[in-house]
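Blinded run. Sample ID left blank on purpose so nobody reads anything into the name before looking at the predicted structure. Input follows.
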Amino acid sequence: MYEIYPQSFADSNGDGVGDLRGVIDRLDHIASLGVNVIWFNPCFASPFVDAGYDVSDYLAIAPRYGSNDDMVELVEKAGARGIRVMLDLVAGHTSIEHPWFQQELAADGPSPAGDRYIWCEELPEGGWTRDTPGVPAWVASPGPRRGYYLKNFYDEQPALNFGWVARPGRDEPWRDAIDAPGPLRNRQALIDIIGFWLAKGVAGFRVDMAFSLVKDELWDDGIRATVQIWREIRDWLDVAYPEAVLIPEGSEPRTGGALAFDADFFLVIKDAHASLFDNHAAGILPFQPPREPFFDEAGKGSTRPFLEAWDAARAADPARPIVLATADHDYDRLRVGSRTEEQLRAALMFLFTWGNVPSLYYGDEIGMRYLPDMPDVEGAICNPLYNRAGCRTPMQWDDGPNAGFSTAEPEKLYLPIDPDPRRPTVAAQENDPDSTLNFVRELIRVRPPTRGTTQVINEAYPLAYIRNGSYLVILNPRREPATVSAPGPATPILASGIDQAGGTITVAGFGYGLLRLAGDAAGPGSGR
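Blinded prediction complete.
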């Protein structure tokens, strides 16, 4: 997959903000990478309090990006290049500017057809009273409607009503059952929205906060009820759009029965991914204790947290696809802090050969860096410990004005361009055979198939594993050399700093290698 943050990819009309026409103009570059799917962050109409994750109309492309016709054209032209298009679906909340919310805000009380949002006239004594950003909380009604509404993230993102499993009694009438009219309206709306875009040729959706639908103090009950909603949607998709793909933000909870989503997603902000790559130069994630990352020049990290999470995710189904991203819009980039372009290659080789579904964040193919001290644009600072704007800066196409992103005046840009005169660009790397861009292209071209086994033969430095019994991958992201016993003769396919001698492979600092084994050198043993 290739993730595009649309505000920052390519501006075709000179207003300082990226748009769909800009993406259409750059499809040849995307196709040259060898990717199969473009994943867009939200493109729907929005007041952009949270960068489009506050939707005011699910059935309309935001005017700043273009029109529905532009999206259809993009889907068609990408398809002609063998690339499908996946959109981001914000399923659990809307913007306060959505007509559904405005209608309920102006009402005297509950809708006769069932409320789409969760309202209470007096704050409940317990439950759902937390006010930390990122968790539900009650917000005082800003309009005629009496009382409070429940939010999902920012105050401007009211939570949609999918009902409750736990219903204490008549003293809390705001707790609708999951099969009450309001929740049923919203479940049908999800189907209608998904069907609207699939009918226009979209391949599927990455679902934001997918498991936040049913609110419940009994967390497991709420999760089970939410998963059941997605199973019902999957049953409909299997008949109406059997080729459609659903991927959740995060991993799908295992609640027994068939899984509703097509893959799990190991998020950049969670421990499995962060334990490999987060060097804390972009801030501190509050979701887990900081640890030394494995892919770091100091060589003090461990792959164990990642390996344990990987095994747990695939325990029930060893073939379960898992998405691993180079980076994303929510935290940092691979190149952050003191990490250099030279250090990226071992990390990139891991992300494209492990056996995961790789997701390449726009700009990582040229080694764009996370920029510190960016302004707080469209809710970028959702936690005081880190700023998401640093990974959302404009794509760097060439050495022209604004790095080729836009013809607008610099002060009108969505975010500032990297001011470093040595900043990487597509144009500078295009014809350089040793560039990061051409390394990524070659890596995607020669990488082993995603499906198959991954057998770890050394989980420390250097990390070494065998893919499908045929490919040996050796990675040394630390500055000091490292050695490992060779599983057998191997021929380099794409390698640097690899020395094979006397049954031992020595890997130079920041060295990497994808090698083809002679015969079946993997031998017995379980594979991931």
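Unblinding after everyone has recorded impressions. The chain has eleven helices and 19 strands.
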